[in-house]
Amino acid sequence: MPSAAKKLKIVADNDEGQHSSPETGARPDELRMLEALLFASAVPLDEAQLARRLPNGVDVREALHRLREEYATRGVNLVKLGKKWTFRTAADLAWLMTKRQKEMKKLSRAAIETLAIIAYHQPVTRAEVEEIRGVAASAGTFDVLLETGWIRLRGRRKAPGRPLTYGTNEAFLEHFGLEAVGDLPGLDELKGAGLLDGRLPPEFAVPVPSDDVTLREDEDPLDPGDLDLTMAPKVEPEAGAGQGSADAEAASEPETAANEPDEK
């Protein structure tokens, strides 16, 4: 039987042999070098530039093609641009690199007044908004308010033509820091802020707003397809949107490009 010393030597030899044996499936050094050079470079590199940094005898072109095959199914791909090579985000993942940014613009005076009327008088139709403002309202004004998410379609008035009724949304409360629409300023607060003329008629009153989602007796549910009205293509921003009240500090999505005859 082998002695204990011989047994220890056999085990040591076996361990040494395991550590010194080449790793199965190890990548060639030239692929790792190419990978490092291309990753670190801020600009694409041609084969001659790469060859100068690699050991003599390396077939750069073959190594590049092998590296491209390795990266073909990964999040970044090795691509050839003209005579140069570089890493690029995989084409199907380009959307991850897209920066989404909203351009903030001021609401026009017409949109601000329309929003205020909807908030205080909801549910309200477009014709009722026009009657309160005293001027015709362009469709673009309602479109831009729908795009902000501050107003919504509620239902249809039980009246000739069954006009759409509008109300505010939760996004309206969030943007203006309100717990409920009933927290909107009343008559005295509006006067104190200088937003109302002091020579108001005696019968003038500010309605108590309510955004109860339950349809009222004079409202019908929306018809199928009514919500598609809010999915229309976005219009171009309105140039030179005006300011007419403290609410003008509120920012929104771009206003419509249509000329608004109801600007004051």
In short:
The protein is α+β, with helices and mostly antiparallel strands. Helix content is 34%, strand content 13%.
What's the structural blueprint in terms of helices and strands?
Blueprint: H1 4-20, H2 29-40, E1 45-46, H3 47-53, H4 60-70, E2 76-81, E3 84-89, E4 105-106, H5 109-121, E5 124-125, H6 126-133, H7 139-148, E6 151-157, E7 164-168, H8 170-176, H9 187-192, E8 219-220, E9 251-252
Antiparallel strand pairs: 1-3, 2-3, 4-9, 5-7, 6-7, 6-8
What structural keywords apply?
34% helix, Arc Repressor Mutant, subunit A, 9 helices, 4-stranded antiparallel sheet, alpha+beta
Descriptive report:
This protein is of the alpha+beta class and 264 residues long. It is 34% helix and 13% strand. The protein has two domains: 27-94, Arc Repressor Mutant, subunit A; 105-252, Orthogonal Bundle (Arc Repressor Mutant, subunit A), CATH 1.10.10. The chain has helices spanning 4-20, 29-40, 47-53, 60-70, 109-121, 126-133, 139-148, 170-176, 187-192, and strands at 45-46, 76-81, 84-89, 105-106, 124-125, 151-157, 164-168, 219-220, 251-252. The strands form three sheets. The protein has a four-stranded antiparallel β-sheet. Strands 1-3-2 form a three-stranded antiparallel β-sheet. The protein has a two-stranded antiparallel ribbon with strand order 4-9. Helix 2 packs across helix 4 and helix 5 (109-121) packs across helix 7 (139-148). The model is unreliable at 4-24 and 231-264 (pLDDT under 50).
